Amino acid sequence: MTEAIYQEVSVKTEKAKEQHRRISVCGMLKYLDVSRSGYRAWQRREPSEQQKHREAMKMRIKEKYDASKGIYGAPKITQELRQEGEHISERTVGLYMRQMGLRAVWVKHWTVTTKDSDFSHKLRNYLGEHFNPDKPNAVWCTDITYIWTDGGFVYLTSVMDLYARRIIAWTLSRTMEVEHVVSAIEQAKRRRRLSNPLIIHSDRGSQYVSAEFSKAVAGMKHSFSKKAYPWDNACIESFHSLIKREWLNRFKIKDYEHARRLVFEYIESFYNTVRIHSHCDYMSPAQFEKLYQKTLDNGINAA
Known about the structure:
By secondary structure, the protein is α/β, with parallel strands linked by helices. The protein contains eleven helices and five strands. A five-stranded mixed β-sheet has the order 3-2-1-4-5. β2 and β3 form a beta hairpin. The protein is elongated and about 85 Å long.
């Protein structure tokens, strides 16, 4: 019990120093009915191996929290530590995070808000909410979302490969003209060097039913969400919710250029390459695709 009291006094003293406040340690010890000499002896005592390990683990947790820009909570940090060979429970990681005052950015789960049973036979839904293809470049999905800046709205168009939930192309524009949506698709085609037709899924926005977009996706099977039913495009909708809640909503975005820098940093420097995803067995989308290619190459070589 005395150990816990000494620890409490030490923590409160350090916090007071950080806040430039004066605090009477003697008064605290007297109030808690512990001796000053005992407290001084405790301060001079060498930390045990268990304490050293605990502090080292807290440092590693803090490093992973900082590397995720404060986005990761105990579940993801636990997974990363386990991947590095550390045997630690999620409960322990959560305890250490609370002790250090670390709290993950809250992300609201995506939910259905509207549903419409009317579905035109002209615009077919080939995807049918099957969001887990067995290889890359089997299914892409795309959507547009708005981002508020001090200079007005800008619009993010993203293209996702559903296999690893990787964002394979994106554009940020000042308007919602179809040319920006087409630009994102052309960018995706160049990056992926497509050789086989695939499914491209979108909602029924005017950009996606336009002649220009149809020309850009010629040779692909164009799948459409049901009217007013965003669940059909849940993965890309979820990503757009994620980038806002985890990243963009933290900033007072000045203008288009500021928004572009933030989007680039999140997608290219974090989401695709670093952020672990439960869908990807707690790997990043890039790592998950690399593992697929490695497995494929090993199979070809074995044959």
